[in-house]
């Protein structure tokens, strides 16, 4: 009994620690080590992880969170009957780092600063089940689920500089802008044996690339379709057009975007997945995108089993 008492005391303390907040001086950033579905409901809020300064998905305007992922996070929290709290994510070297720092482990300087759910995560089965050299799953600590949008690459161009863009081959002779260190940047500088490399101009983000197009520095800009849609909807860019070309050799031209949670929080995942599923199938996700001047495409996940009529409804075609 003398041996068991200290052990039971330690177990009690460990259980107590898991259920209490860690005080790091910021009430919003503190969280229990395991914020399960029931704890989230009891706490009265859902902490949604979104990327910082990433229009049109998530950004601040006049000190307020804005963007399609912000609206989606608010809608999910509303459906759950809790308050929406934003958890800003500063992108690291790769997606694996972002998931580790914001979903399941926490940054080494802020272990408790985690999101309950992270949005804008590529929904990719190959990535989800990727294994290391020993056969261990690299992403076993997270669950990728709930695809809510299909993204693709897009080019916008200045019709005063180019009659049309039927193929990216025109950028062997015409300047094009891209956000630095992104896939469009790598693609444009390496495709076709690097024949477009000298015409590529690098910018901090897509908005800066559009500014350069307005100033005549480039004839076109490449980015994700939602980013291009967002910029084309701005009055100062109303003279530019979206191209209809493809991207030979780019590898993945379209992909689904979904959510991520810690692998031990499956109940939360089921609840969030049901909410997003209703929003997609009812056409409400399309309406959310349309309010933000974004073209909406149903994720490939749904295209595998929905009929044409259901897909048309989800994409706002009554």
Number of helices: 12
Radius of gyration from the alpha-carbon trace, in angstroms: 22 Å
What global shape is seen?
globular
Distance between the terminal alpha carbons, to the nearest Å?
Answer: 72 Å
Helix content: 25-40%
Number of strands: 11
Structural class, by secondary structure, is alpha/beta
Largest sheet: 9 strands, mixed
Strand content: 15-25%
> Could you give the order of the helices and strands?
HHEEEHEHEHEEHEHEHEEHHHH
Average pLDDT number = 87
Low-pLDDT windows of residues: 1-25
Which terms summarize this structure?
nine-stranded mixed sheet; 318 residues; 11 strands
Question: What this model shows, in words?
Answer:
With 318 residues, this protein is α/β, with parallel strands linked by helices. α9 crosses α12. The chain is built from twelve helices and eleven strands. Strands 1, 4, 5, 6, 7, 8, 9, 10 and 11 form a nine-stranded mixed sheet that branches. Strands 2-3 form a two-stranded antiparallel sheet.
Short overview:
This protein is α/β, with parallel strands linked by helices. The chain has helices at 4-19, 37-43, 68-80, 95-104, 125-128, 183-194, 206-214, 225-232, 266-282, 284-291, 300-303, 308-314; strands spanning 45-51, 59-61, 64-66, 83-89, 117-122, 142-157, 176-179, 200-203, 220-224, 241-242, 254-262.
């Amino acid at each position: 009994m003398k041996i068991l008492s200290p052990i039971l005391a330690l177990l009690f303390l460990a259980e107590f620690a898991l259920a209490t907040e860690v005080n790091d001086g910021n009430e919003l950033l503190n969280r229990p080590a395991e914020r399960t579905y029931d704890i989230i409901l009891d706490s009265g809020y859902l902490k949604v992880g979104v990327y910082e300064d990433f229009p049109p998905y998530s950004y601040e305007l006049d000190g307020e969170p804005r963007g399609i992922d912000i609206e989606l996070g608010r809608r999910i929290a509303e459906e759950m009957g809790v308050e929406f709290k934003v958890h800003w994510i500063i992108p690291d070297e790769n997606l694996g780092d972002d998931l580790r720092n914001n979903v399941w482990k926490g940054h080494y300087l802020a272990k408790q600063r985690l999101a309950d759910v992270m949005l804008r995560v590529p929904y990719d089965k190959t990535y989800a089940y990727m294994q290391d050299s020993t056969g261990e799953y690299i992403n076993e600590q997270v669950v990728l689920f709930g695809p809510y949008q299909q993204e693709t690459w897009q080019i916008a161009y200045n019709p005063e500089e180019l009659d049309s863009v039927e193929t990216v081959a025109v950028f062997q002779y015409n300047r094009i802008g891209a956000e630095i260190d992104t896939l469009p940047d790598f693609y444009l500088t390496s495709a076709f044996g690097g024949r477009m490399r000298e015409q590529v101009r690098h910018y901090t983000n897509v908005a800066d690339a559009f500014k350069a197009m307005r100033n005549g520095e480039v004839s076109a800009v490449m980015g994700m379709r939602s980013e291009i849609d967002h910029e084309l909807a701005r009055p100062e860019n109303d003279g530019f057009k979206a191209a209809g070309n493809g991207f030979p050799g780019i590898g993945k031209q379209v992909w689904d975007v979904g959510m991520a949670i810690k692998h031990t929080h499956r109940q939360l995942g089921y609840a969030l997945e049901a909410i997003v599923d209703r929003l997609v199938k009812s056409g409400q996700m399309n309406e959310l995108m349309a309010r933000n001047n974004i073209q909406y495409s149903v994720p490939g996940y749904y295209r595998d089993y929905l009929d044409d009529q259901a897909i048309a409804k989800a994409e706002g075609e009554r």
